[in-house]
Here is the input.
Amino acid sequence: MWDRYPLTPEKYAGWIAETPGDCIHVRVDAGIFSGAAGGARALGQFFYDLPEALRSREITAILPSSAARNQPRAEIRLEDLGLVSSHRAYALTGIRTILQQSAFWCLEDARYLIPDQESWRRFQSTDHFSRMDTVSGSCGRVAIRSTNQEAYDYFSAYLIALARCEASCRDDLWSPAAARVLRCLPPEKAFHFHSGHRFIGYSAHSLKEFSRLLEFIPEEVFSFHQGQGDFSRWIDEVLGDSTLAERITHCATPHEAAELARERGRELCHDLK
Here is the structure.
């Protein structure tokens, strides 16, 4: 048995008081309480009593939703958090599936499309991303097993909410037209890469994701779509960028098309500033 059992709010508050630093994120594994009498009730009582135990140690407790309303002390870029730099970072942050990666890329882009940073930060909750996997969990909760369809439903709901938030902010931006092209798309409007015989597992939910995925698709997939004019049609009719739609028809390779899309994305981002 754990030699610190039972874990009490007073004991936990004491550990926090002895920990250096100005801010501590409290995360308690629900498994600690699984063997305790009352189970979920014990967990609820622990968090109910914890703020008072912290106050007795002159420690202020604040919920994440309240912290999001405060002005940040400094700017932290998402890439500085290591979310996309290594396999270890993926494991630490829960970005493990193609759905999670797609949603994360859309969230990155949304930073410049949602002027209200409090609203943008609310989309960063790890719960949103964890439920896009078939095994998920969060602070204070046991692991949840979901079907592939349930994970996709969470992903779809997230992109729809993000797309609606971006749309509501568009008229407040310097160039609403550029913002429309750069926006996040719900799954039904995404570009789904196909071999001619089957869906190959990649879908682009934004211009930036489209440029990234072009680097991964096989030559035959590129040729299939380019030959049918699928790229230019989607860019023109869905993204609303006739300029890029015309230019991309002249691309002969996926890499050439990807570079063209990236360059166009940079042009449009400049228009937002």
Confidence is low (pLDDT under 50) at residues 82-93. Residues 9-67 form one domain. The radius of gyration is 23 Å.
